[in-house]
Amino acid sequence: MLTREQLVSITLEALTKVPGANFTLPTQASGRPYPDVEASRWSAAKIQWARDNNIVSGYTDGRFRPTQPVTRAELMAVQRRAAEFALTLQGKQGEVTPRQSAMQFSDIQGHWAASLITQMSGYCRVASPLNETGTAFFPNNQTQRNYAAAATVRMLNCVKLP
């Protein structure tokens, strides 16, 4: 299982590896990035930076819920925003465009993230079926660390393509 604050940390550290990335991640937050994230929390500075750069957002109640498990759908939302940010770092249009045909997942119809999951499946297969087999994505399942790492690597590799 991967928490929301762990996802932020993994994603931002990965973004520092993008060719042309010329930014430094802060080590201290200037305040509480969200009401439920103390400025002294280990992840606060990264959460604040990710929020300020439109890579993550809180929930409608204003909280971030840093220790809550990330769903596979939420992972794809963060990966898309991270890819858009990374593209702009390279001076490219900050829009994720398909590199291959999108997968037709059998279980995302009507889900809030259906279109972005489909989009990210066509973007170097950042979104892929559970255990890389079949046609089910399982958008509400908790994200496993190995899947988050693999999706992040695929996103980075896709961003680096000409």
Please name the defining characteristics of this protein:
about 160 residues; mainly alpha; 5 helices
Précis, in short:
The chain has 162 residues and is mostly helical.
Write the layout of secondary structure elements.
Blueprint: H1 4-15, H2 44-52, H3 72-89, H4 114-121, H5 145-160
Helix pairs in contact: 1-2, 1-3, 1-5, 3-4, 3-5
DSSP strand count: 0
Round the mean pLDDT to the nearest integer and report it.
Answer: 95
Which oligomerization state do the chains in this entry correspond to?
single chain
Shape: globular
Overall tally of domains: 1
Helix amount: 25-40%
Strand-pairing-aware structural class: mainly alpha
Largest sheet: none
Order of helices and strands: HHHHH
Q: How many helical elements?
A: 5
Amino-to-carboxy terminus distance: 33 Å
Using only C-alpha atoms, the radius of gyration works out to 15 Å
